[in-house]
């Protein structure tokens, strides 16, 4: 063990968890090199390095920007990469009404700004915000109050942002219903529960926004049924409630479309973006209608580093690569291969008893194991290899064989978030390691 790892173990706050105490030395395409070995990286740093580690074109764009302008503070003036990024993003927005942008550093920061805009622009100053059971919106005080995937993010730290209510999300297992429950039934139940919430606890006049991820991420990799999203839109329209769609993890091609919202066609009032936007450079954004941001006092949106020039320059190049390298086509092809491999395990007589569900969109795929149908695994962490937790054990085996995977919160789910640029051979290798690991755990 190197001295630096020892320093890390001693002095990095223990509240910061990690899969393993190793040193990540280098990232290259789909691979992560550590002080010990190299891994095929199916985590993408939690859905961030979508175009592969250190994509040469993104690196070059950032290097050129470093030599030109590092910090063009947004309260002092426009800077080129900031506005150029808007020009790149305008045509790929999931709805043409989304025409007003500002950039921040993290997903959490963007979520909190979205709430401010929803409250101010709806005129419901102290309006409640309804989030989904199983949601993840971040770790800062406000965002963690909206996070319901597991308790640790807001445990014993006092009340976060006030006025938060959680409503059920159409995820059978989380609703205590059999996996076989028809989707229509789940959606009907969830919309009914939301109507009840608005009738009994948070009056529409006191409700500023509903926030959700179109594919629940940390909470289990469950896509929201299209009919549920349409139902939410209707409820929002009927009651002057803002619909905030958080595409921090599902955006920028992850699900096979530029944004997951495109699958349903449902219009967000406010869209929250981050992660894949700049392939690892810290950048997030809030996109909404100009008429809403026009209600915000001048200077009320922004921050010292918001819309950093290097991150925005990287973001511009990412948008170019997405188009020129036909990344969405690769997502579709690799997704089909991954799903085929997972379905094979799900139906194989030796392994099928472990599987509860295989689900997801594009390269945002979750595998839920039956072990979680007994009870939720409270506060499952990023590496939770207990004897009852199949996902944690599979994750550990995969790691030993050179494949890095993440689990999700609360239930026994392994998630697949490989780079969108992953090659056919790399996908084949990842699936081979996963299959071997599942077969070993199944014995
Ligand atoms: N929203 C979603 C859907 C996320 O997945 C995340 C991060 N996992 C966040 C918000 C928070 O982003 P950040 O960690 O950059 O604050």
UniProtKB/TrEMBL annotation:
Statement: the UniProt record of this protein carries the keyword ATP-binding: no
Keyword Ribonucleoprotein in annotation: no
Essential cofactor(s): pyridoxal 5'-phosphate
InterPro entries hit by this protein: Aminotrans_3 (IPR005814), Aminotrans_3_PPA_site (IPR049704), Class-III_PLP-dep_AT (IPR050103), PyrdxlP-dep_Trfase (IPR015424), PyrdxlP-dep_Trfase_major (IPR015421), PyrdxlP-dep_Trfase_small (IPR015422)
Pfam hit, one: Aminotran_3
Molecular function GO terms recorded: identical protein binding; pyridoxal phosphate binding; transaminase activity
Keyword annotations: Aminotransferase, Pyridoxal phosphate, Transferase
Family annotation (PROSITE patterns): AA_TRANSFER_CLASS_3
Domain of life from the UniProt record: Eukaryota
Protein family according to the UniProt entry: Belongs to the class-III pyridoxal-phosphate-dependent aminotransferase family.
Protein name: 5-aminovalerate aminotransferase DavT
Annotated organism of origin: Wallemia ichthyophaga (strain EXF-994 / CBS 113033)
């Amino acid at each position: 063990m190197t001295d630096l790892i020892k320093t890390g173990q001693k002095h990095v706050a223990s509240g910061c968890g990690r899969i393993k105490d190793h040193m990540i030395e280098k990232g290259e395409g789909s691979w992560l090199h550590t002080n010990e070995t190299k891994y095929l990286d199916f985590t993408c740093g939690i859905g961030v390095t979508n175009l592969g580690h250190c994509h040469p074109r993104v690196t070059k764009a950032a290097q050129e920007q470093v030599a030109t302008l590092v910090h063009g503070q947004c309260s002092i003036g426009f800077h080129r990469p900031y506005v150029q990024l808007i020009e790149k993003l305008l045509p790929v927005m999931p709805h043409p009404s989304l025409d007003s942008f500002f950039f921040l550093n993290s997903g959490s920061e963007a979520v909190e700004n979205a709430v401010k805009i929803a409250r101010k622009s709806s005129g419901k100053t102290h309006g409640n915000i309804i989030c989904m059971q199983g949601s993840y919106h971040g770790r800062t005080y406000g965002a963690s109050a909206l996070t319901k995937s597991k308790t640790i993010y807001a445990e014993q730290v006092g009340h976060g942002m006030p006025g938060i209510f959680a409503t059920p999300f159409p995820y059978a297992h989380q609703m205590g219903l059999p996996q076989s429950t028809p989707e229509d039934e789940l959606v009907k139940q969830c919309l009914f529960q939301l109507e009840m919430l608005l009738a009994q606890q948070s009056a529409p006049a006191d409700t500023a926004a509903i926030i959700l991820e179109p594919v629940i991420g940390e909470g289990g990799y469950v896509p929201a049924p299209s009919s549920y999203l349409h139902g939410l839109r209707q409820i929002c329209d009927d009651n002057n409630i803002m619909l905030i769609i958080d595409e921090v993890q599902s955006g920028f091609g992850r699900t096979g479309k530029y944004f997951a919202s495109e699958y349903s066609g449902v219009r967000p009032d406010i869209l929250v973006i981050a992660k894949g936007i700049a392939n690892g450079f810290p950048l997030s954004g809030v996109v909404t209608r100009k008429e809403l941001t026009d209600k915000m006092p001048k200077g009320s949106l922004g921050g010292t580093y918001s819309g950093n020039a290097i991150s925005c320059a990287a973001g511009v190049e990412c948008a170019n690569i997405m188009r020129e390298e036909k990344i969405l086509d690769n997502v579709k092809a690799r997704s089909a291969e991954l799903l085929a491999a997972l379905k094979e395990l799900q139906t194989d007589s030796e392994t099928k008893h472990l599987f509860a569900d295989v689900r997801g969109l594009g390269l945002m795929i979750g595998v839920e194991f039956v072990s979680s149908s007994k009870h939720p695994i409270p506060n499952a962490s990023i590496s939770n290899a207990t004897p009852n937790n199949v996902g944690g054990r599979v994750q550990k085996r995969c790691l030993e064989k050179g494949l890095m995977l993440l689990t999700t919160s609360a239930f026994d789910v392994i998630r697949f978030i490989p780079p969108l640029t992953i090659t056919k051979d790399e996908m084949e290798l990842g699936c081979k390691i996963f299959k071997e690991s599942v077969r070993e755990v199944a014995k």
